[in-house]
């Protein structure tokens, strides 16, 4: 099967943008992010700080890995595993009735309450990673028009992601220690 490099690069850039931005915002707010990790109540206390520090570093490495064709397949697999883990952690807390905690996706002034919409969003992002995971066949060469298509499509996906995040997950700012 001949793979379309425009589709693959659109997925790479979109996922790298999301994971890179998430990592940078978490690294800039490590203490509040540690509170978010703690609020999920899924880890022993001794694991909270290492996870809070390690997770954004891993996200940054995966974002960079997506941009290198030789590592993009493995990075996409890592992204999919993380997204599934995030979705599972959210689902566990939603089932527990704990929806008023911050998802921790981006450490910004907008808090994202847990919701099934966020779980679905993560699952949709896993679908975006699938073409990269399954890639391996010959690809046609990139044409000049592909560059415009990739930029437009990746930009549109990132804007749609940002809009969906604001629409389905925002709430007033509260301290990360509550919930």
Automatic annotation (TrEMBL):
Cell compartments where the protein resides: Membrane
Pathway: One-carbon metabolism; methylamine degradation
Main location: membrane
Bilayer topology term: Multi-pass membrane protein
Pfam families per the UniProt record, alphabetical: MauE
Transmembrane segments annotated in the record for this chain: 6-29, 50-68, 74-94, 114-135, 141-164
The protein's role, per its UniProt record: May be specifically involved in the processing, transport, and/or maturation of the MADH beta-subunit.
Protein name: Methylamine utilization protein MauE
Protein species of origin: Marinimicrococcus flavescens
Lineage: Bacteria, Pseudomonadati, Pseudomonadota, Alphaproteobacteria, Geminicoccales
